[in-house]
Design goal:
mainly beta; Immunoglobulin-like; about 15% helix
């Protein structure tokens, strides 16, 4: 009889647990998950090295590499350099007033001077742009090492 009472009590406690378990209520809530991806860009450039100039046309190229957020629009500008006159890019011989004229172009035929912004769209990966440099022929110069510093600027909206 005692075994039957234990079984009955056990069954009753299980049944009570089930009754209470089926009466449990739950509430849920949703929440938004958001993020904003801003356009960001970076730029690097290789040096433009013409080498020796012998009064004939001297051509060479360098590469501008930009990396901007996928789909982000930006423009690439190259300033006139540190030694430019009002109409000409120039390299300078040290601390003297001797200059070697040069030009930068956006095309291999060197017909389109790099004078305006070049619009681009980012891919999220590095994008290379060639800059085509040229020293015009016929410049009477003092021998020595001429140099200039041109600055590349990319403009974008974050």
């Amino acid at each position: 009889m005692k075994i039957l009472n234990y079984v009955s009590l056990y069954s009753l406690s299980l049944l009570t647990g089930l009754i209470y378990a089926t009466n449990i209520n739950a509430a849920t809530a949703n929440f938004n998950v958001t993020a904003t991806v801003l356009t960001s860009c970076s730029v690097t450039a290789t040096d433009l090295v013409f080498g020796n100039y012998d009064a004939t046309v001297n051509n060479n190229t360098n590469i501008i590499s930009t990396t901007c957020t996928n789909g982000g629009t930006y423009t690439v500008d190259i300033n006139s350099g540190s030694n430019a006159s009002s109409t000409q890019r120039r390299m300078k011989l040290g601390a003297t007033t001797n200059y070697l004229n040069y030009n930068l172009y956006s095309d291999t035929g060197r017909a389109s001077a790099w004078a305006v912004s070049t619009a681009q769209t980012g891919t999220g990966l590095a994008q290379a742009m060639n800059v085509y440099g040229q020293i015009p022929a016929g410049q009477a110069l003092i021998s020595g090492s001429y140099s200039d510093i041109a600055t590349v600027t990319i403009t974008y909206n974050p």
